[in-house]
Structure formats: C-alpha cells, structure tokens
Amino acid sequence: MVTAAVVILLGLFLVRPGAARLKVRIANSISLAVARRAEVGAVHIRFLPQPGFDLENLVIYEDPAFGAEPMLRAPEVTAVVRLTSLARGRLDISRLELTEPSLNLVRRADGRWNLEALLERTEQTPLAPTAKSKSEPRPGFPYIEASSGRINFKAGQEKKPYALLNADFALWQESEDTWGVRLKAEPLRTDMSLNDAGLLRMNGTWRRAGSLRETPLQFSLEWDRAQLGQLTKLVTGNDKGWRGEVRLDATLSGIPAAMRVAVDASMQDFRRYDISSSEGLRLAAHCDGRYSSVEAMVHEISCSAPVGNGTITLHGDAGLPGVHRVDLAMKLESVPMSAVAQLARRAKKNLPPDLVSAGNIDGSFTVEEAGASPVGPEFQGRGEITDLRLQSAITKVEFAPGSIPFVLSAEGPRARAAAPGKLARLVDGRILPAPDELHVEYGPFPVALGRPVPAQALGWVARSGYGMVIVGDGEVSRTLRLASLLGLPAVSASAEGGAEMKLMIAGLWVGNISDSSSGFSLPKVTGTVQLHSVRAAVRGVNGPIEISSAELQLLPDEARMEKLIALAGDAHWTGSVTLPRGCGMPGACLVRFDLNSEEAGMSQLSKWLGSRPNQRRWYQVLTTEEPKTPAFLENLRASGKVSIGHLRIHDLVADRVSASLDLERGKLKISELRADVLGGKQRGDWQVDFRATPPVYTGSGTLTGISLGQMASVMHDPWISGTAEGTYQVAASGADSTTFWESAAGGLQFNVRDGILSHISLASDEGPLRVTHWQGRARLRDGKIQIENGKLVSTGGTYEIGGSASLERVLDLKLARGTDLKRAGSPVYSITGTVAEPRVALTSPVTQAQLKP
Predict the structure, then answer these.
(1) DSSP 8-state class, residue 66
(2) Do residues 457 and 468 touch, judged by C-beta distance below 8 A?
(3) What does DSSP assign to residue 511?
(4) Could you give the C-alpha distances from 232 to 145, 196, 238, 240, 705, in angstroms and in order?
(5) Distances in Å between the alpha carbon of 670 and those of 416, 653, 657, 661, 774?
(6) Lowest mean pLDDT segment, chosen from 6-20, 230-244, 274-288
(7) What pLDDT is recorded for position 281?
(8) Cβ neighbours of 211 (radius 10 Å)
C-alpha cells in the first residue's frame, strides 16, 4: 500500500493530463476578464503541489484602436485553483504566475493608454479581495505575478526604443475597494547596449472609482544606482560623458486630476568621465508640486537645493511639453563660489587641483509663457558675483576682479546688433558672439595682467557651452599663468614680455563618448596677439628666443606668427611660423615656417640646438658638432624654407644660403641646398637621421666656379690656386666631426683649371707646378682621399696622377708623364710628405726633381 501511494503521488507530480475541453472555456474566461480576445496554446491539469492548470503560449490580443500587435504574450502561465471553490462546485483561480511575459504599453495620439480600460473594468468587477476569508462566497481577485518579463512602450503603431527588462511585477486586490501593484525592473534601450541604467522599483495602490481620472491613488517610485553616463545614453541616445550615481525618489498621492507630487533627486560623485577625484561631490534637490491631468500642468512647484551656506529655489507653475504655459521664478541666494569651483573642477578639465575660490552669487530669474507663441517663453533675470577671488599655489597667480554682473538673455547676435543696451556687450567695438539660445551674459569686468591698465573681459554661459572675450594689454608670463588657472590651453614655456590681446575663448560642456570619439573637445582660443619684447625659454635648446615683435593670429585650426622679428642662436630672424591646433601632442603637429636671416654662425646655431663643440681640424669646417640628437629635434615635425645672407662656418663664409627643410621626428631632409661659397656655387641635397646612434648623414651635390685660392686661404696655407668644379656623393655617421670624417665614404668627380701648386716643382729651373687642366675622380674612405684616373696637364707636359692624401694632409702621390704610370721602368715622380712641405723624388736617373724653396 505504501509503495502504491508513493507511485500515485509521483504520477501526480510528473503527469499533467491534457485538458483540451477546458482550453476554450479558459480562454473565454480570460477574454471576459480583460475585455480582450485571448488564446491559449495548450492546457494541462496539475494536482500537485497545488491543484491548477499549466497554460502554454498565452496570447492576449490588443484592442484594434491601439494597434494590431498583441498586448501580452506569456510562454508559460500557472493558474492555481482555490481549494474552497472546488467544494462549492466552482472553479476559482487564486493565483496566476506568468513566466517571461512580454507586455506592450501603448499610448494613443489622444493621450489614452491601453491599460486604462482594463483598470476601469477591474475596478468595476464585483470580486472579493485577493486574501478573502474562506467563508466568502464570491470569487476572489487572483494574485497575478510575473517574473523575468519585458515591458515595451509604444506610441500608436510605433514601438519606442525604451523598455523594462527583467521585470518582476504583481497585481492584487488589497481590500474591497483597493488594488495594489508592485514592479521591479531594469530600464533599457533596444537600439543600443546599456551597462548599468539602474534599478526601477514601484509600489502603489488605487481605489475603486467611476473613471481613471477620479481614481484615488498612492504611488512611490524609486530609481536607484543609475550611472549618469548610462542614464544620458538611455534618454538621449548618447553618452554625454558625465559620471555619477543617480537616485530618484518620488511619491504621488491623490487623484490624477489633482495629485500631490514630491520628488527627491540626488547624485553622488558627479564628475566628467576623464576627471578623477578622491573628493566625493553630492548634488541634491527636493521638489513638491500639484499635478492636474485635466490641465496637464504642475502647480505650486516648490524646489530647493542647498549649496553650502546658500540655496537655489524654484517656485511657480509649469505645463507639460506642448502645453505652452509656464510661470516660474528661480532665486540664487548667497551661493558660495567655493561650491561652484568644486563643481567646475569636475566638469572642466585641466583646472588646478588646489584651486581656491571666494565670493558669493546672488540672482533672480523668471520665465513666463501664457500660450503658444512664435517667440516662445520670455526669460528675464540678472544677478551678481560679489567679491570673486580665485587663486592657486601651483599656477602662482591670483584672479580677483571683484564683482561681476550677469544677465539672462535669449538674444542672438542679430538682436544684440540692433539693440546692444541691456548689458555692456561691446568690447573694442566688437559684439560679443553669444549663441542663439538661452544663456547668461556676464561682465564686463577688469582682468589684471600686470599692466597699469587692466584688460577688459565679458562672456556668456549656456547649456551647450561658454565663451569669453578679453581685450587689452598684459604681461605674457601672467597671462599664461592665468590661462592655467582657468584651465585654458596655453604654451608651457617660461616667457617674459608684453602682449596686446584681442581674444575669444569658447568651448562646449557636452560630449559624446563612443568607440571612435573621446568627447569633450578643449576650449578654443581665437583672436590676435601683438607680441613686444618677449623673451621665451624653449625646452631642448640652449638659449632663449627673443621676439622683438610679432603678430600672432590664433585661428580655429592653426596659429600663425607673422611679421616675426626675433633673435635665436645669436642670429636675427624674420619671417613666419605656422602651427596646427588640435592635433594632440606637439610631435603630432606639422610646423610650417619661412625664416630669413642676414647673418648667422653655424657654431652658434649648433650650440643653441644643443651640440657641444670639440677641437676642430681643417677638414671639419663644413660640419657641425652634435654629440647626441638635440632634444629640440627629437619629436618635432616641421617643414619650410630657410635663407641666410651670410653663413659663417668658422673661417668659411657662405653667402646667399637657402634650402627647404623637412624634419620628421629626428629625420631631417635638406632639399635644394644652395649657397655661394669660395667664389663659386654649391647645389645639393642632404639627409640626416638623428634617430640612429650615431646619427647618419648622406648627401650629394655639385660645385661650380670654386676658387681654390680661397679654399687654401681657409686652410691657412696658400698651397694651391685656380678654379674647380665637380660633383660629390658622401655618406657618414658620427656623433661629432671626428667620427664623422673617420666613417665618411664617398666620391668626387673634379675638374681644375688654371691652377698653381705653389709648393711643388718638378725641376729646379721650372718653378712651381702650373696646372692648365686637372681632372679625375677621388674616393674618400677610412680617412683617406684616393685619387683615381687623374690626368694633369701642365706647361711641362701631360701627366697621369694617382695615389692618396690623408685628411691629416699627408701625401703619397705618383706622377707619370703621358700614360706610363702603370708601365714598369717609366720615369715616375713620387710626392710624399705633407701639403705644406712636400717631398718630390724621381725614380728615373735621367731627371732630378726637387722641392721649391
């Protein structure tokens, strides 16, 4: 018997006999209850753990007036039967459990929701409370519970991207005339991914009434742990770049036609996404009001937000969007600037972390609209910031303009141009370029920049951004420090001097954070600056840049320095420099320049760029000393032209030097290098790779009309005269000139005419060797110049010449008359010794050569 009982119990647990005959009856029963056509896929009877039914694929269709999509779908529904009803021969459902239902809430164009008819019908149904007594003969209202559901929102036929996911909700009848509802869900958008939009909880009750508008209700709403970035993405579709944890608590009581509303909103750790701070910032506000669904208005609005020792209050009436009725007044009373600065440090990047502020803000604002109007609501208001003072020990500057007036305005540039009288909006004859939206204009106020007469400033702040105009004279150093105090982009350099400024500073508060965008562009500073007697230290060079005068034009995309007159590397320069803006790190920008100098020294320029000169030898006069890559060149990208009237390379002077330079982070390309040197001309192209260790040099070019006498003069020994021309190619590496020439390798095609080798004679009675024509090829390798295939024509005959000459001026040359240089037994002149003191010997006994005394 025990075994049989166990088998029967297991069978009742596992076996769910079909109830096809009941399917139509149950579907009709649900249809009558909700006034919607219902359909059930399958019905199974269950006995344990409680008697009831398991329904599959329940569908409740929508009222055609709201759309064609079903109102509710539930793949699984469990209906629990009230046992006491079975004793009376009636089927009474005590509990309905819906698993993963999908509910559509639809709002028609007339403002009516699809649930309204259902709620009104439920309220009119003569059912007993859910927790009715066992003796109650009437059927009871079932406890309806859903788990892991989804609630969608529609406007007519259009499905909105907003939904509630993982929704757990319940509906029951608390008492004879009162119903209750509970909801817990996660808000989401179906068209994008949200990480943490918080958790929404709602609890409420309502009482029986003739219509929904007259239904007394009591609801509480809680939206907790919503991250501000995800919240803005939920509402607007974009992450605006703000961070913080939002909490919203609201209560509604009364009837929809006259309902009291109380809202508490708070935000913890408010900040911008790219700003971190150990100090938590909490923003909070409380609002009360009375909502009327008949008028779609909120009356008796009273909001208060404490800010330090001050408060921000809002009072009045306001209609919902589209009503065009509003009458609100807002007051700021003793709002401390310290609190504003604390908020600014979390909303504006690059502000000093030790920014200290003092002062108070007082003001009053109103907005009024009595109906639809083409001009929209009318805004008015004004106020003042008193005793303002900002300072920072890091920037070593204090900003204390005193009092700053401000006024609320909705006028754009055209309106102000027609009537610029509300506030002083003109600075130096220019209209403040404020936006065509509601904004606050402030100023004018003095800005002390180290000059006897302070500059003047005024600006605006709007929901989208901000702007400010500064006009006047200032010290460059104090201006740069003030820019750092205000978080403005400024050159990080030590500079002294004066500047006459006409600047416009503008930026945006909002940003969109995505995979391809970091959001929050830096504020733009545009306008003109006249620089006078500015001395600036630049990182990476061994001396200041002294700017006598220059006109700096700050454009949206680039900064142009024109009419430049400056001293750098002991050379006076004129010309222009253009630097792109908004390209990130300095190394990402391509600097363009066009610089000219009447006279410059290679050694001075080399020292200024960071090189250290060593003891130089005669063949090193055309090189500069660079023991390591100059720091100034390591990350710089630049392109432009340079011309120098007289370039001194120790004892050598090159005139009319010009070249096109392209510098790409330590790799320098010198194109079209032209110079008048040694009475002739040089044309060539060079490349220097400072990134290699040691630096690598390659070059090629042509020489024409070179005076060998001038070259000998530079060498301080008149050993040769005449003119020469040729072509050269050379490659070398080295951190200084010594290693440069030790590693140098290259070739030279040369042609010498009408020359004299003053220290050499081939016979005692001939005098110095006169050269009518000398041509050949020379190769440079391992510190020696190897002459190949040389042909020398003199007054005494034609010679083949070969051999080598070291860079230390040591000679080892052979001369043979005619083409006998390689033929055994031919008379050959051997020239050894040095350039200053050569020794000539003849290997044939017939002729004797001697040195010229």
Answers:
(1) T
(2) yes
(3) -
(4) 31, 11, 6, 6, 75
(5) 54, 19, 12, 5, 31
(6) 6-20
(7) 80
(8) 13
